[in-house]
Amino acid sequence: MNNSKVLIVDDDPMIRDALAEILSSVGGYNTEIAINGDEGIEKIKDTKYDIVFTDLTMPDVNGMDLLREAKKINSDVPVVVITGYSTIENAVAAMKEGAYDFITKPFKIDKVISLANKIIGEKKLLDNIEIKYDQKASIEKLNAELFSKLQEISVFQTLSTELDGLHNNREIYERIVGMVTRLFVVKEASFGLIENNVLKIKSSIGVKKDIIPLKNTFFEKVISSKNHYIAKCGEINPHSDAIINSSFLSIPLSVNNEVFGILNLAEKSDGLGFSEDEIYLALNFAKKAALRIENNALYDVLYNNLVSALKSLVIIIEARDPYTRHHSERVTSYSLEIADVIGLSEEDKEAIRFGGYLHDIGKIGVRDTVLLKPDRLSNEEIEEIRQHTVIGDNIMKPLKFFEKEKPIIRNHHERFDGTGYPDGLRGEQIPLIVRIIALADSYDAMTSSRPYRKARSHEFALEEMVRCSNTQFDPELVKAFLNTPGLKNKGIWNKKYFL
């Protein structure tokens, strides 16, 4: 055990005890705990700690209060704040108040130990250096600058990680603007894409315009020079056409040395201009954002190419079997009508759109002699046909996309009573969008001609679905299907079908 003393202040006993156990058992630190901010402050008055860990959100005396008091008592004590991911802004604010760093819940053991060792290592290094009096001021200044840089890097890494988790363009644009607004504390921020000599604003805060013409604005300089621009007082603010009387920073975003967008920060809340450190951080942030947007564009290209390839397989399957031509489109159409009736989310509808189209992709692995047999199938042939769900699942399994669509392909022949295949799922074990596809698939199968029988009437199919409610089909979805506009437009809707 080393002699370094660590104080942990947290009102949550689970977090407090877990952190104490990590630091003492794994790191070998001498730990003490305080159950609230008041007790923590008293302990700091009585004992000189090498590190203080404090939760930010505590009743009465919170982590920010404790941080300020700890710095008054001992300005050299390193304070690490503990925060939830959703309160990252508070952690940033705490670092501006003098916190050494922050950790987010749930925290990782190696990160906690690494951070503690780093703090103690720096402290020992400083303790072992004899500082001459006439050098002290310059060293303290250098240390403060280094500390500031470390704070910026820590914040930037956290924000970069937040950006990396997104794939939707709209969310990326909104997150970019939201993050720079918090990081640089500005009243105005915008991100726009350059299209046809205008800047189309994709996300903004404090900006009313959606489209800004580039002509006669300093945006032209930003694009032509491919460098950032700091507007001077008296220039025109493109966001509002008003006179700029404080700060405005405009940064180009480039791919392959071509400017495709502009990030703008304006009206700092403190009324000051942007410092060199802030400009440096903003430029690096813009590079990260440009790279993320470029990667997302490549992701979209890859996704669309993959979708096209999979759709080509479906076309091949349906070309083999003229009886099922356009079956996938009809199943998807019926399913989306049901989705509208029950109010499914756009995300689920998108999964239905693609999963419905691909649901029979596994038939690519079924022999033509079985798939196109004009007579009734033998038991062995029925089993071979049933394998198309597993074959389709195996086709999709290696792909990292389509996680919501994969169950549609594997499980669209499950039954509500659990007697379906391949997994014998029942009731709500079958995902809702899969139950919808299963119903639409059966309806289209009944109303389409097969080699061994003619198409059944829509009326017959509806009566069969009502009869099989609670056995083959989810009864609530049968009700929803009976209420779809498509059935009413066919003129076959009738009150007698209601359950």
Task: Give a structural overview.
The chain has 499 residues and is α/β, with parallel strands linked by helices. The protein has 3 domains: 5-129, Response regulator (Rossmann fold), CATH 3.40.50.2300; 169-295, GAF domain (Beta-Lactamase, 2-Layer Sandwich); 321-497, Hypothetical protein af1432 (Orthogonal Bundle). It contains 19 helices and 11 strands. It has helices at residues 13-26, 37-46, 63-73, 88-96, 109-127, 133-164, 169-184, 219-225, 276-320, 327-342, 346-358, 368-371, 379-386, 388-396, 406-411, 432-446, 458-467, 475-482, 485-489, and strands at 5-9, 30-34, 51-55, 79-84, 101-105, 186-195, 198-205, 211-213, 229-230, 248-255, 258-268. The strands form 2 sheets. It has a 6-stranded antiparallel sheet with strand order 8-7-6-11-10-9, sandwiched between helices. The protein has a 5-stranded parallel sheet with strand order 2-1-3-4-5, with helices on both faces. Helix 10 crosses helix 16. 31% of the residues are buried.
